[in-house]
Amino acid sequence: MFRNQYDTDVTTWSPAGRLFQVEYAMEAVKQGSAAIGLRSKTHVVLGCVNKANSELSSHQKKIFKVDDHIGVAIAGLTADGRVLSRYMRNECINYNFTYESPLPVGRLVVQLADKAQVCTQRSWKRPYGVGLLVAGLDESGAHLYYNCPSGNYFEYQAFAIGSRSQAAKTYLERRFENFTDSSRDDLVKDAITAIRETLQGETLKSSICTIAVVGIGEPFHILDQGTVQQIIDTFEIAAEQEGPAAEPDAAEQSAAAADQGGSTDEGVAPMDI
Amino acid sequence: MTKQQANWSPYDNSGGSCVAIAGADYCVIAADTRMSTGYNILTREYSKICKLADKCVMASSGFQADVKALQKQLAARHLIYQHQHNKQMSCPAMAQLLSNTLYYKRFFPYYSFNVLGGLDNEGKGCVFTYDAVGSYEKVGYSSQGSGSTLITPFLDNQLKSPSPLLLPAQDAVTPLGEAEAIDLIKTVFASASERDIYTGDKIEIVVVNADGIRREYMELRKD
């Protein structure tokens, strides 16, 4: 109730020392569909839940490749996210052109944060309504950063943003200590499991989630639906059967299930552009 | 009152020759690896060939500093294209981009004589040849650089390029097989390096076909 007096302009402080427009922008991030990120010493995995407006439309693209060594997952106003990805791509290309080496992730997130800050201090602008999970590799190893509309950025071992992200965060908090030494495949499995937590009961299919990986010796790329479905099947089946003796059967069955899973999902092809 | 002449030139000729030949399902692009200045050799192992896209390779002779700058420009533009279109640039598209990039500097040109080679959208070999300011043409074969005056007549004799004025329209690509085209390239460079002082040391040969891109080398006279 009180807030309404001081929330018209982004350049108006409230008596309590808050900028409400910036906080409302962070609210927009919480309304977007979930995105999660986790990292080990050598790899970073990003995952997101794909929302589609209706069965007829294509899925929103929420994960963008920025460069061979950097990728970003967004939550919130995807249009703002698209514009910021274009900015990030340009910065990487220009840096590479000048210095013949990849732009360090730490530098990029600072530039991004400064860009976001500008929008919190101009009366004719509005803050970007998107949170970005930036995954990247540089000389000092694998990194995961979160950039928010306020212009702040933080580095994380693992994080989740967007709607129902608390469920994913709880799962990640339980498991994060193992992530540093995790193998790439285990990291991907953890990412998919974290996404499943945000779905809360809804069936996990490769058509509603997207996973991307970047690592040492592995340029940033989005995993294709077939691969993701196979991984989903391995742990659905492992959950049904008890004991490690089930593993060889799980591998066989997952191949069969993946074929079925693949064909039913063929109809819902995400638009890449 | 004589006109004052420039006492410094922004350009220098690094010498060398480039050749490209288009085949039915392949394209061969080759260049020697000698970089010179005046009557001296700067290095015997400099590559004039640059891969611009999956099916598109460019060889350039002239002033290598300008060549390097041009290659970097095109590589950056190609990255932007990939981000926007989610696919690699085709060879004809890259050909147009190169022409535009060169003409952009019409009044302070890239001192770069280019030959672009690769596969077009149907998988057929294509070669595009340029002047320094971007005038270009799709041809069946081409040669640029210090040895081009020696190489081009030989290629004309061997590859019998039909006149574009002839009817019915004839295909410019050679019916030669890949191995024969490579052999022709080696012969042509060996001859050029006999008489052109700027051509020699080694040839770098790049072959683009449906399997991808591969590279081979051949030694030439070192004198």
Automatic annotation (TrEMBL), chain A:
Q: What is its main location?
A: cytoplasm
UniProt domain Proteasome alpha-type subunits: residue ranges:
6-28
Q: Where is the composition biased (Low complexity)?
A: 244-263
| Compartment(s) of residence | Cytoplasm; Nucleus
**One Pfam family it belongs to:** Proteasome
Task: Give the source's domain of life in one word.
Answer: Eukaryota
Region of interest called Disordered, as start-end residue ranges on this chain: 241-273
Family according to the record: Belongs to the peptidase T1A family.
The record describes the protein's role as: The proteasome is a multicatalytic proteinase complex which is characterized by its ability to cleave peptides with Arg, Phe, Tyr, Leu, and Glu adjacent to the leaving group at neutral or slightly basic pH.
Q: What is this protein called?
A: Proteasome subunit alpha type
TrEMBL record, chain B:
- Spell out the family assignment given in the record's similarity comment: Belongs to the peptidase T1B family.
Record-linked PANTHER family: METALLOPROTEASE TLDD, PROTEASOME SUBUNIT BETA TYPE-1
Pfam families for the chain? Proteasome
Q: What is this protein called?
A: Proteasome subunit beta
UniProt subunit comment: Component of the 20S core complex of the 26S proteasome. The 26S proteasome is composed of a core protease (CP), known as the 20S proteasome, capped at one or both ends by the 19S regulatory particle (RP/PA700). The 20S proteasome core is composed of 28 subunits that are arranged in four stacked rings, resulting in a barrel-shaped structure. The two end rings are each formed by seven alpha subunits, and the two central rings are each formed by seven beta subunits. The catalytic chamber with the active sites is on the inside of the barrel.
Q: What is its main location?
A: cytoplasm
* UniProt keyword list: Cytoplasm, Nucleus, Proteasome
Q: Where in the cell is it found?
A: Cytoplasm; Nucleus
Its biological function? Component of the proteasome, a multicatalytic proteinase complex which is characterized by its ability to cleave peptides with Arg, Phe, Tyr, Leu, and Glu adjacent to the leaving group at neutral or slightly basic pH. The proteasome has an ATP-dependent proteolytic activity.
Q: Which Gene3D superfamilies does its entry note?
A: Glutamine Phosphoribosylpyrophosphate, subunit 1, domain 1 (3.60.20.10)
* Source domain of life: Eukaryota
Organism, as annotated: Hibiscus sabdariffa (roselle)
The record's annotation in InterPro entries points to: Ntn_hydrolases_N, Proteasome_bsu_CS, Proteasome_sua/b, Proteasome_suB-type
